Structure formats: C-alpha cells, structure tokens
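Write out a record, fold above all:
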Amino acid sequence: MTPDWFRWCLTFLLLFLAGPLAVGAEVDEALLRLARDGNNAALGAISSLSLRFERDWVQTPPPEDAQSYFSISSGQYWYTPETFRLQERDNNHERDSIVRGGKGLTWGRRPNLMGPTLGRNAVDRAAGQAIWEYLVFRHQGREYPRARPFDELLSQPHTLNVVRLVPAGRGVKPGEILVDSSHEWCRLELRFDPTVNYLVRHRVVTPVQAKHVRWEDEVLIFTEPTPGVFIPTTIEHRCSVNGEIRAIVRTTLTDVRVNIPLGADTFRIPNIAGIECVDFIRRVKYTVDADGKQSGPDTPASIHAPIVTLTDSKIPDGPRVPSRPPTPWWWYVLGGSVVLLIAAWVIARRRGRHDESPVRMPQVTR
C-alpha cells in the first residue's frame, strides 16, 4: 500500500509541473489567426515606400549611457520588395546604403577617416532594415539580433502565453488583440489594432536574461497616405530599468509616399563612378561605375581598413543579450524533485516488501 507521504509528494510534483505547462492556457487560436493574417496583409499591401525620418530625445539618459539605449539619427528611406536604400546621418557618421540581391553597397564617412569609403558586403534580406523596426513592422526573433515579421516569428520555435482581446480603455482601441509570446531570447508582447488593418500599435520586449529591462514601442499616430494602407508616422520608444524609465526617443516620419513608382535613379548612390570599392565578399578591391558595378580589375584588399558598412546602421541593443540564455530556475527544482521522488518510491517499495514478507513464528520445543 502506498504511504500517505508518498502520495503527497506525487501530488506536489504534479502541481509543480502543471504550473509551467498551463502558461499557454489563455490562447484564442481564432484571434491569433486574425492578427497574423491581418498584419501580413497590411504589410504585403506596401509595394513601395519612400519617407524622411528623424529621431530625437524626449527623455535623455545620462550622457555616458546615451548611445547604449537608442541611436539618434535622421535621413531618408526608399523601399521595394527587391531593393531598399537608406541614407542616414548622426553626430559621427554619414552613410548611404543600398541592398539588392543579397548584397549591400555602402558609402560612408566618419570623422576619423581621411575621406569617404565604399564597401560591398553579403547581407540577408533583413539586414539594414532598421526603419522596419522603428515602425514596429518587424520584431525580435530567436535569431538575435535579426528582426522578423510577425508571421515569420510564428514559424520559429516559441511559446504562446496569452492571445486575447484587450479591454478598450485609455490608449487601447476597441478590438485590439494581445499576443504574448516567448522564445529563448525574450518575451514579446504585441497589441494588434484592427482599425489600422492589424498593424502593431504597442510592443513590449523583455530580454530573458535581463528581466529588469523593458523595451517599449508605441505608435502615437498612424496616417493613411493611400486608401486602405496605414503607416505609423509618430512612434515613441522607451527603455525602463527596474521600473524606472531611463530613456525615451521619438521617431517622426514626413513626406511619406506609398505604392508610387520609384525611378531607377532612386536606387543609385551618387558620385561613386571611379571610386575604389572594398569587396568583403571576395576580399578584393576594384573601381566601380555609376551603378556600383565593378569597372576595374581586382587587386588584393586588406580587410583591416576601417569602413562604414550596413552593420553600423541598426538599432542599438542596449544591455547585450548573451549568446546563450540561462537555464530556467524551475528546471533545477524539477530535476531535484524527480530525483527525490524516485528515491522515495524505491524506499517505499522496499518497505512495502518488508512489511508483506511472512512472519516466522518461533518454534517451541517441548
């Protein structure tokens, strides 16, 4: 017969296991499909985009920490599904980047360099698209630090914590859908707004190994430059540490044009004909023509020379997320509980066998 204490231990372990497994209980699959399909359609409706952007402080962090929170820059951006171009300027850098066919061509200037530089690099289709993160179109996935559209995040390993309607109130539109998910890098909370075709109005990112840090993005203003197509034009980005807001940056868009044909000259860096280009893919250098195509012979290149590349044009990550997330605390507790439970079961079995063994009566001799 199983002892009472053993049954109590087993009950405790089952309740402990049910806690983490029950996290995803409040998941409405119909709402999830609605948010995913609506958001995907809203982004897919953008066949071309051009805009000017400017980022500035709303609340400035201590000067020594300023660059660890957000980048402060301004510039222009042009986009088609095949190609994009980003011109960006800040206090120390000036760059003009074009990405086409998995390759990026970047012209850049830094104060510590004698003159401008030109470089070619291999990039994936997500590289350099900081604008899409500013607009809350892309979100942090498992492939840190690359950001992906929401439908692609759902195809990666993740845990859905909550999917439900958010009660309407201050800052919340009627019918907004909250999708709260987690993966090995962070917890991601997204609110999809049906009044703007299920674009994300509010996002919260909490790193797994820095849970005291909270990154928050909120769209304050949407505009409709083309009927049925919405674009965020004022976005506020906040960083909190231990519940205290440390920094706030606002991104403002102007001259927004959507689904208007972009001329061939749009995707051409000016005045680069005859400039020497360092090719990081083939580790050579050569001169290029006005379109950025190779026009001179290859010569060996020293890749140690400083150059401004697409990797410089991204959102600062703040406190770095380590390359490997820590093992959850409950995993150690679970492992120890299983070991103790097995040991208790073995002891109980042995005691049970001892109790059930026949009792030998002493023989009485007369």
